[in-house]
Amino acid sequence: MMTEQVQVSTSTAPLDEAVRRLEAHFGNAIRRDDREGYTGVVVEPSHLVEVAKFVRDSLGFTYLASATAVDYLGKSESDHLEMVYHVCDLRGGPPLTLKAQTPRDQATLPSLVSVWPGADFQEREAWDLMGIRFEGHPNLKRILMWEGFHGHPLRKDWKEAYYEQEHKPFDSRWPEGHVRRAEELNPFGKNVRYPAGFSLDGYEEQAERAIYEGAPLGVQVSDLATEQVVVSLGPQHPSTHGVFRMVVTLDGETIVRLEPVMGYLHRNHEKIGERNTFLHNMPFTDRLDYFCSMSNNLGYAVAVEKLLALGKRWDPPTYRAEAIRVLMVELTRILNHLVAIGFLLNDLGAYFTPLMYSIIERELILDFFEAVSGSRMMCNYMRFGGVAYDLPERLQSTAALINDRVRDFDTMHYLRALIHDRLPRAVEQTNDLLTTNEIITNRCIGVGVLTREDAIAYSAAGPVLRASGVPYDVRRAEPYSIYPDLEFDVAVRYHGDVYDRYLIRLDEMVQSLRILKQILPILEETKGQPFFSGKPGQYNPRVPAGEAYGRVENPKGELGFYLVSDGGQNPWRYHVRSPSFINLTALSQMCKGHKVADVVAILGSIDIVLGEVDR
Amino acid sequence: MYGSGILRGLGVTLKHFINTYLEDIRWGFRRHIPDEAFPLRQGLETRGIFTVEYPDEKLATPERFRFIPFLVVDNYDHPERPGHDWCTSCGICAKVCPPQCIWIVRGTNPETGRPVPEPAEFYIDIDICMNCGFCAEFCPFDAIKMDHDYELASYDRTTAHIFNKQRLSKEFRYWQSIAPTRAAEEAEARGGWEHKDVLKQREREARAKAPAGGSEN
């Protein structure tokens, strides 16, 4: 197996150096962000593209991790929207934060798609939800909402149809709770507002035409005298892993253009997150990537803990808590990759056999999660400063319903057997079953190639990035939890095709097992030690004002939470950098020139979950 | 050799096929395997078939399992306070509830109009409840707990899915039966099997009695 160790660098010295060089080069066009609790530099919008190019080419920050907008309504003398870019050096280290401000009433910023194509979807999202117009964006239109949507929902002055109060907890719940169903107050069907001048008549036709006739991507297949047809794959199609739609322009069987259409599962997770208190958000993160709720929990906990660390009174999580977290997260990685491989094979036409074998192992891990956290998929297990409960002595069930079948295992014995015997066997079995299978090699090798340069430019993350020859893993690049103490390699493959994206998942499972084997003795040693560093029963931690970008290596890629706190009990801004969503930016690039049947395989190899794409 | 990969794959599936029949033979071709064999069938030892025939067989849920909260009340045969609410209507559960599905009407004394530590009404909209378990986790009186009964299908969502206090209340005995270890741990933390306030009251009475008894002697 090909693995490579990434240089570990956690000091902020390179960041200071980068800011100094920026200052020397651009002078007054940039200034340090001196608000309390903030970092990075604020760039004059007119110089944004130049600065981005300089940062990318001269400072080595080649990878745009996240781009998002914040509305500072009423927070400064001049109300403004702020675009925040987190740019990373692929050799490791914390991200450099670039910001650009624009007035709320005429929000316009230059687009960075020409510098980082990976900004494409993220800028469209910022336009859609925050209403910042990006000049020079090739295809600036709504991405999660539809055209008939009124307003930009993440702006602070936008109110949802069921709006009750700015922040939870709502006063109507206690002490005088007059119960009612939200639907009765605002009946379904009467809760829609349309933008001025919008008419539903003929809308559908118009919208479809806009999608079908969108900007051509410039591939000419002129020597084939076939007619081009447009095929809409999805949204209700089993191969799209949910309600995801791809509008494909075909020349014969060859793909000329592909446009992802998403947002069918959109619920504005981020707006909900801003109504919630910090703690309220924890169970909501479970619902992002519902296969990996444990790692979503960890990502959010890491981000809030970064914010909490800005304050004075803050105890970092205990060692046992971190060990339990890593245990959960690595088990999640294994179950996610097993299922991802299963679904990839499903997409290739193998029907359910490989998937069902994966699900058996996943079932065993979920049984463990259920006994520890109380839920199989919506775990809601991490807290700020540790975890919710310690591991139980026994994984024991009690009969409560008719026909209940009871099981009872010793926890540590169960884990040992799982990690040392069952899971390695499962990985081996998957390898035996699939890796050398001729159908798979024929369908996968050389299909959907994403070159190293493209992978970086399109902000691909996780297995997609690493299969293209970039050994970048947040666990090593900006270590969190107890990963620095653990021995593992960052898996990397170099071809960037579907087959390598399959192989890298096998590699990562092997590495995860390596980590888990090191975690078991730590769990035995720390038995009985505290699993939570905070005050028990505290549901409203005091979060100091400031910003934090917490990121973790999720099974699907870099999961980042960008939080802005104004010192209150609710986050002022809560943004999720979701790996599935951003990995899709590169989808059309990967599919161009391939046959229509390969699209399904390529999409399967990216491994998306629509709960996270649409948020 | 071309095709060897496919043969290897088929070998894997064949192994699973045979293992399934070996399991059947092992348990004597019974439709449902005996209870004592169940952990082998649904556990780390399983090599063959892995399915459970719901609803003829159900996987019992672990103690920490959480599904829709219920309110703990004293046992109905409790000598002093039968069916008395443990809830003091402090409202913490309503505050920590992420989807805000808990409505509480605080109890008041009809004569004085002052609040009393029990809820007059308590509603949970189970359509909105996301089973996160925060209410149970942060309740300082162990008065709200997560249930294990996940079979809640009903015919009408518009009327049947807001649970009132009566529908939510369950005996303390029930909590002991579904989560014996946790109930014991909590009782230990409280200092007895009764409600926190009752225990405090008793302690106060005992203390009031003790010096009085001392002065008599």
Summarize the entry for a quick read.
The complex is a heterodimer of chains A (615) and B (217). With 615 residues, chain A is α+β, with helices and mostly antiparallel strands. Helix content of chain A is 38%, strand content 17%.
Biggest beta-sheet profile of chain B: 3 strands, mixed
CATH class category label of the largest domain in chain B: Alpha Beta
Radius of gyration of chain B: 26 Å
Fraction of residues in helix of chain A: 25-40%
CATH topology of the largest domain in chain B: Alpha-Beta Plaits
Tally of individual domains of chain B: 2
Terminal Cα span of chain A: 36 Å
Count of DSSP E strands of chain B? 8
CATH architecture of the largest domain in chain B: 2-Layer Sandwich
Mean pLDDT of chain B: 86
User: What top-tier CATH class of the largest domain in chain A fits best?
Assistant: Mainly Alpha
Unreliable stretches of chain B (pLDDT < 50, length at least 5) are none
CATH superfamily of the largest domain in chain A, by name, is Cytochrome-c3 Hydrogenase, chain B
Strand order of the largest sheet of chain B: 6-3-8
SSE pattern of chain B, N- to C-terminal: HHEEEHEEHEHEHEHHH
List the quaternary state of the chains.
heterodimer
The CATH architecture assignment of the largest domain in chain A turns out to be: Orthogonal Bundle
Distance linking N and C termini of chain B: 101 Å
Which structural class matches the secondary elements of chain A?
Answer: alpha+beta
Structural class of chain B: alpha+beta
Structural features, described:
The complex is a heterodimer of chains A (615) and B (217). Chain A is an alpha+beta fold and 615 residues long. Chain A has 20 helices and 22 strands. In chain A, the strands form eight sheets. Chain A has a five-stranded mixed β-sheet, covered by helices on one side. Chain A has two domains: 3-135, Beta Polymerase, domain 2, CATH 3.30.460.80; 269-614, Orthogonal Bundle (Cytochrome-c3 Hydrogenase, chain B), CATH 1.10.645. Chain A is globular, with a radius of gyration of 24 Å. Chain B is α+β, with helices and mostly antiparallel strands and 217 residues long. Chain B folds into two domains: 1-59, no CATH class; 67-190, Alpha-Beta Plaits (2-Layer Sandwich). In chain B, 39% of the residues lie in helices and 18% in strands. Chain B is built from nine helices and eight strands. Chain B has helices at 4-26, 38-41, 92-96, 134-138, 157-160, 165-168, 172-178, 180-190, 196-216, and strands at residues 58-59, 61-62, 67-73, 102-108, 115-125, 144-147, 162-163, 169-171. In chain B, strands 6-3-8 form a three-stranded mixed β-sheet. In chain B, strands 4-5-7 form a three-stranded antiparallel β-sheet. In chain B, a hairpin with a 6-residue loop joins strand 4 and strand 5 (115-125). In chain B, helix 7 crosses helix 8. At the A-B interface, helix 7, helix 10, strand 16, strand 17 and helix 11 of A face helix 1, strand 1, strand 2, helix 3 and strand 4 of B. Strand 17 of chain A pairs parallel with strand 1 of chain B.
